[in-house]
């Protein structure tokens, strides 16, 4: 069909206005009327549609078939997914309700970059103010009825007054073989394109009146959330470990937090950085939308305007610079260790590249701990209102200092100190052991850290990042966790492998040979009275990875989920670093950064430029110890 046929021409729109569309039945097709309204003034009730621009069939996305919406101003090209929506709209008779709709691909002139940027800036208001949000999942399939009926059954069972969270009732009922076809249908439901798209996260969360349309079937978001709660309990069902489940459960968490944050009594802060990290597993046609598509959910977006005239990389760089200037904090640069630049990217090593695809962790980094609201995390809301009594423990490698830095093009020049150098690195699943140098500078090591007991306590603290629970709110209970650590090690020392989980066995095998202050970790254990004494105990510690406040639960998060490995410095200090770390990396504290970071010299000797490797846990240096003394004077680091 000739492009000249699509003669619809959008009228200009002001910065505080929106277009709405009303559908009318014309024989066997839908026609439409578009009209502009002031968003903050008199505006009729309208539904906002949430849908995927992509068809469920890749072959359909690749075809040249065109669909149109007839209007008095001329035919308007519409997406293929809109064509199927119009057919259902006709069958439902919804057009007779005289309702207006807001549908982005129809109501925004996408060819006008300035209008697109301006309208995306208003998305939060558009979805919050809608009479209802209709989530369109596409045409019905053979298993649609089974999936929807199962959603409603799961929800009903979960909502029963007799149901108790953590009980076995849900598992007992729904893990029976009889329900396998139902779980398959439910998995297919969460595999619809809509669930994987970044834009739909905020569209799902922002309106209290949201419901799903799947063909002719309709059902509430409330029912879907109940089904997700039930599915989360059924650990032996294959659905629990799929990307489909994560896509559903992740957005449910975002929705719950957003809803609670709107309550005036809660004032919950949800940072854009935490949201960008948590939603990086979702798909985006335009990678700028990895920030713009969730912007309306965040509490701190005043320093990020929507601008589609910029490139993806310029958008990410502008966001990182604006964060540093606004908060006077360098914490955002730590995200660049896991959201590192893609091949061919011009982004510097210190600017997160949000295009990296990573499974969601509610607390992906040490700087994400709850005591730092400018970063924050996506932990469950129940844990945000019951903070420990007294001051919340927080990493403060440079105490309360603010960032002292300037930007030179793509380079960040930041003030800080070198406190040590990486010397040895334990092995891991993806890396080999890097042995410490034979010469160890024990003269610079605090005398109280040389005994076997102190070395092991430092290793224990490092393995859990000196925190008790997964959300890093509470300091490590030293004696309790040390007992658990010693018990696990002692069983492996005597060959009782059946009593220890394979994950800890694996870590132990990768670590036994590393030298710590001139002795192998294995020899340090054998020299320790604690290891011998605990080994005689019959009281086994909990080894369930889902117990947030146990030694093993924290170990599992640090080593397995965050993929950190044990490090030993030239001065015999112990810590944890990412798998990207290398021998010779500098351990630095940068003013305005909550945790130490690793910097790697780039260019030739004496060039004075560095690449950021990532954040670092260094026992004894998480609370400002690296700021004083003449041994490590302040200097500027030019990070590129």
- Poorly predicted runs of 5 or more residues: 1-5, 441-449
Structural class: alpha+beta
The percentage of residues in β strands lies in 15-25%
**How many helices does DSSP assign?**
20
Q: How much is the average pLDDT?
A: 87
Shape descriptor reads globular
Whole-number total of structural domains: 4
Query: How many DSSP-defined strands?
Result: 20
How would you summarize what this structure contains?
By secondary structure, the chain is α+β, with helices and mostly antiparallel strands. It has helices at 58-62, 80-92, 104-107, 113-121, 123-129, 144-159, 169-174, 180-190, 199-205, 221-233, 243-261, 272-278, 289-292, 312-327, 452-463, 478-493, 502-511, 521-526, 529-535, 551-561, and strands at 17-26, 29-38, 46-50, 67-69, 76-78, 100-102, 132-136, 210-214, 217-220, 405-408, 411-425, 515-516, 519-520, 564-569, 574-578, 586-590, 597-602, 609-615, 617-618, 635-639.
